Amino acid sequence: MNKQGRQKYRAVLKKCLVQAADILLNEIEEVIEEETSKQKRIWVRDWIKRRDKLGASANLLRELALEDPVEYRMCLRMTPDSFETLLNLIKPHIQKMDTFMRDAIPARVKLEITLNFLATGNSYRSLQHLFRVSKPAISNFIPAVCEAMNEALHEYFKMPTTEEEWKIIANGFEEHWNFPGCCGALDGKHILILCPGNSGSQFFNYKGSYSVVLMALVDQNYCFTYVCIGSQGSQSDGGIFQKCALGNLLQNGLLPAGYCIVGDDAFPLRHYLMKPFQLFPMDGKKLLITTIIYGIFRCVLAVWMANI
């Protein structure tokens, strides 16, 4: 290769190197720009950091507990004293330790959020704004708090198992309603839900909505003695009763001889389950019995009306 050829070759090589350097430099600049333009991951949002001063736990619920117990009960479905009792029972099971990076969410806040969610059905996003707790954290601890409540209250909520316990309830009904031998009022309550996927009409009830059914037995003090939760809304109260544990127990002699519970016309008439007369006209005795049974049945209706 002569001198002129070598010079031409060098010029082309130099031009190629410059172009390659420009391309490489542009790629590097794009990578740097992309990395620097990315937002830094937010560990805790500033407005959430002000939870201890401005959150519902520190302000709204504290004010309601002191000034308006009725509205407090509407928020959490229990009195302030009952809340403190429940908190003391489950706090050791739901309180996490603080770390050097951030403080743990207080057990009180976790319980308040869980109870408000169960009472009102508020969305996680609404609860996030109200209590200033992140939505991922809420979705994580609500099931854990529910499990802790279930374990802690296991001994506080149980059906009578002895003849003496049933007779105490029966004495209460006789004193309040003049109906001897009654051990409870039974009814079902539809709890509205969104239609689960691929469920067809299984949860579609006679009212034209989707629901699960809460079957409950209450005593003379309007307290639950038995619940069966989760039956499909398409089922009748009578059908659910016959399939639930209470129906089987009553069939096998749960109550003392001669004692019964009462329900409405949705339930089957049994020697252990009384319901009002439906045929008119009634004589004096039937009318009296029907009136008394409806009076007792109002015990369970009052529980539903109380939005518990």
The run of helices and strands is HHHHHHHHHHEEEHHEEH
Q: Roughly what is the average pLDDT, rounded to an integer? A: 85
Which overall shape is indicated by the principal axes computed on the Cα atoms? Answer: elongated
* Count of helical regions: 13
Task: Find the structural class using helix and strand composition.
Answer: alpha/beta
- Compute the CA-based radius of gyration: 33 Å
In summary, what is this structure?
This protein is an alpha/beta fold and about 300 residues long. It folds into 2 domains: about 45-150, no CATH class; about 165-305, no CATH class.
Write the layout of secondary structure elements.
Blueprint: H1 3-37, H2 46-49, H3 51-54, H4 60-67, H5 69-76, H6 80-94, H7 107-120, H8 124-131, H9 135-152, H10 163-177, E1 182-192, E2 211-218, E3 224-232, H11 237-243, H12 245-251, E4 260-262, E5 273-274, H13 284-305
Parallel strand pairs: 1-4, 4-5
Antiparallel strand pairs: 1-2, 2-3
Keywords, please?
308 residues; alpha/beta; five-stranded mixed beta sheet; metal-binding
Structure description:
The protein is α/β, with parallel strands linked by helices and 308 residues long. The protein folds into two domains: 46-152, no CATH class; 163-305, no CATH class. The chain has helices at 3-37, 46-49, 51-54, 60-67, 69-76, 80-94, 107-120, 124-131, 135-152, 163-177, 237-243, 245-251, 284-305, and strands spanning 182-192, 211-218, 224-232, 260-262, 273-274. A five-stranded mixed β-sheet has the order 3-2-1-4-5, with helices on both faces. The longest helix is centred in the first third of the chain and has 35 residues, at 3-37. The protein is elongated, with a radius of gyration of 33 Å. The model has no long low-confidence stretch (mean pLDDT 85).
